[in-house]
Specification:
This protein is α/β, with parallel strands linked by helices. The strands form 5 sheets. A 5-stranded mixed β-sheet has the order 4-3-5-14-6, with helices on one face. The chain has a 3-stranded antiparallel β-sheet with strand order 12-7-13. A two-stranded antiparallel sheet has the order 1-2. A hairpin with a 2-residue loop joins strand 1 and strand 2. The longest helix is centred in the N-terminal third of the chain and has 28 residues. The model has no long low-confidence stretch (mean pLDDT 86).
């Protein structure tokens, strides 16, 4: 006797309310269903069902066995789904979003390696310096920089980035080096327009936060344009550390007022809550989280 099959037959009969209704649900002959229930009772050595003209009723032993059978079959189904998804090839579409510069410099190379490992995944990578709504834009995974608003979304922290004030050596030689945040009021700056969240000119002093901005010499609507203007000596910019890491290493831009810098901003990977989480989403999250943490720890 197949005990798992017998449990399934018993549950179908109990949930349908009668042997005949259970047989119809299972699309099996009534005689076959009746025999399997009887064989199960014989195997257990107890009566599970009480048959009468008014229908079926569970005995005390039957109620306990049905509850245990339901738990066992649910666990078995979950284990089978997990095993098949773990060992099967991932396939289907995956929509991911990230800020432009971070996506190009950090996320894209990791995502390309994921596609080589999972050739049946079709990846849509939306890079934008605005926060896409996961629900409205049908986004599976999003990378967010900054403190997250309270929500039902699930977040996994992968690192942090610093807010950096910098300028070219040419500009600093011409206009002087600001030593205190208050000095910025006498300097030229490059500001941003058209951003959902613009870089803040915020500093820390004696535990308190305060804001001082340079006068805007140039206003742009992309981070890359601001960086190019700073490299050309137009003024001071405030950007995130990953956006100018190469320029800082080469000395093309010089970091300023580091002792007044605010706390770093967290970097999180977020997704909708789901139980179970789709296998393609879970594998992508595991893949990028591990590698982003390694990159950002350097």
């Amino acid at each position: 006797m197949d005990r798992f099959e017998a449990m399934s037959v018993l549950l179908a009969v109990v949930e349908a309310g009668s042997l005949s209704a259970g047989a119809r649900r299972l699309r099996s002959p009534l005689a076959t269903v009746s025999r399997k229930v009887a064989d199960l009772e014989k195997h257990l050595g107890v009566r599970l069902l009480l048959r009468s003209r008014s229908g079926l009723a569970l005995t005390e032993e039957g109620r306990a066995f049905v509850a245990a059978s339901r738990r066992i079959l649910e666990a078995l189904n979950a284990a089978e789904k997990q095993a098949s998804s773990d060992h099967g090839a991932l396939r289907g579409g995956l929509h991911v979003t990230a800020p432009i510069a971070f996506g190009e410099r950090h996320l894209l190379p990791i995502a390309l390696e994921f596609l080589k490992e999972q050739p049946e995944i079709d990846l849509r990578l939306t890079l934008a310096d605005r926060q896409l709504s996961l629900a409205e834009e049908h986004v599976d995974v999003a990378l967010r920089i900054g403190h997250l608003a309270d929500s039902a979304l699930i977040a996994t922290r992968v690192g942090a980035v610093r807010r950096v004030i910098c300028a070219s050596p040419e500009y600093l030689a011409r206009q002087g080096v600001p030593r205190r945040p208050d000095d910025l009021a006498q300097h030229d700056g490059i500001s941003f327009q058209g951003f959902a969240i613009s870089p803040e000119w915020r500093y820390r002093r004696d535990g308190a936060a305060f804001t001082v901005e340079p006068r805007s010499k140039l206003s742009v609507n992309t981070t890359e344009a601001a960086i190019q203007a700073a490299l050309a000596g137009i003024g001071i910019i405030r950007v995130l550390s990953y956006q100018i890491s190469e320029e800082l290493r080469s000395g093309a831009l010089q970091e300023l007022l580091t002792e007044f810098a605010p706390a770093p901003l967290p970097v999180n990977v977020i997704h909708h809550p789901a139980d179970p989480l789709p296998q393609k989403v879970r594998c992508f999250l595991d893949w990028i989280s591990l590698r982003l943490r390694a990159q950002m720890a350097l």
